[in-house]
Amino acid sequence: MADAAAIGLAPAAPRPTPAGLWVAPPLLILAVIFFYPLSLIVRQSLGDSGVLTLQHFQEVLSSRQFLDGLYYTIVIAVTATAGCLVLGFVLSLVIAFVPFPGAKMAARLIDTIIAFPTFLVTLAFTFIYGSAGMLNGSLIHLFGFELPPVDFLYSRWGVILAEITVFTPFVMRPLLATFSLIDQAQIEVASSLGAKPLRIVRQVILPAALPALLAGGSLCLLLTVNEFGIVLFIGAKDVITLPLLVYSKAIQEFDYTTACVIAVVNIALSLGLYGLYRMAIGYFGGDRAGVV
What is the CATH number of the domain that holds 168? Predict the structure, then answer.
């Protein structure tokens, strides 16, 4: 190196590493832990006799059990998402714009609630609203009912209520981030001009919150479509969603081909919803939606 400098020659520049070498390790990891298992599921759904066929898809997709599972999956997911949007918007408004002691602490607890496993909420609901829960026990003791008067928990409404409780923070988090960016002077000016609180919410706050609502609602819809633990833990009567149907076919009936067919449909549905979720964020802007 010293000789090269002495005669006025610059040291040779290091040879650039081909970009493909940096891409190869992540692709290899994805292939092992994701694409290969997924390919096995797709292969099993097309038949396990060595001959690829769509017959299993035709049989499963036309069966009453699958159609009922798809119906309950969509109805529960859409209803729970709508509940999350309404409840999350109202709670976020209160926390962000209604001064009360502990408002900042309540906002910080949202991230903690997101980290909770879903079965904790369903377990708490069982203790409160179950047949032998605190509410039914108190009502039976006070009024002498022979049967538990509150029995909504073991139905689709119990599943929906539990999912709303679990997934509402996923709507509140981007909403609170968006509300923190709203100029308080706009609200003060609108109020000084005689605008009522509902009009301020409709014309000032809601337009600013729309991107966060769409992003949070899309994420909730994606999560509720794939929710398994809440439905299984509650054990709602005659309520079987697609994830629960996959579990039933694979684990209880050992019908792996049917389970793989339903799993492929569920994956396609999830990817479609995820595409809508990314489109909503891309259209309105991830920064405006408060998405991190």
Answer: 1.10.3720.10
